[in-house]
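Example record

One chain of 118 residues, shown exactly as stored in the release files.
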Amino acid sequence: MEKTDPLEQALHAARALVLADLTARDVAEAEIVSLVEDAVAQRRWWVEQWPDGVAYVAGLIAQDVQDALLERYGRWPLCPVCDAGEPHALEVEPELGPDPHWVCGRAGVVVAPVGRLT
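Predicted structure tokens for this chain:
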């Protein structure tokens, strides 16, 4: 039986989490899924250079996809907590750490773990 590389496991898990969030918010179109694939490829190189960073890959890929979406399509994911004021995106916290969550920076509220948006 072939042993799966921990790096590949982490990358596939991160990909699945980000795709789940995109699907939950109805934006998992082909062009956007390509952005996820690009982010995974870039982070593969990054974590090969810094193997101790494997625990941070899910949050980093979520941030990479969020940044790519901002450049091409606009803010994502929009905050479901704040009703008043300008619509704003959730943030990934911690920026570099394990167990990333989507957080409303304005209200200081944890909305969901990465991969569990509704």
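Notes: The mean pLDDT is 93.
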